[in-house]
Design goal:
Length: 85
């Protein structure tokens, strides 16, 4: 497992997801080198799936997970402002 895979797995776990990596090892076939995210509790497909195929690159997974973190951070700021008022 590469360092990128490990970093993505940690990032996904911190956000409540499980990283799924394609098992296809032949370049040029189907979803070779693709990833997806499943909900850690329900195991439902959450991001990077299309007709049970993986569709997201490592960069897309990272962008999605970091975007979720930013949304959570912004939401926490809105909540703090309401409490402070």
């Amino acid at each position: 497992m590469s360092g990128t895979d490990q970093a993505l797995r940690r990032l996904a776990a911190n956000r409540g997801f499980r990283l799924v990596k394609s098992r296809i090892r032949t370049p040029g076939r189907k979803d070779h080198g693709k990833y997806g995210l499943r909900d850690a509790q329900t195991d439902k497909e959450a991001f990077g799936f299309s007709r049970h195929r993986l569709t997201a690159s490592a960069a897309e997974i990272e962008e999605h997970l970091r975007g979720l973190a930013e949304l959570g951070w912004k939401a926490s700021l809105r909540t703090r402002r309401r409490v402070a008022d």
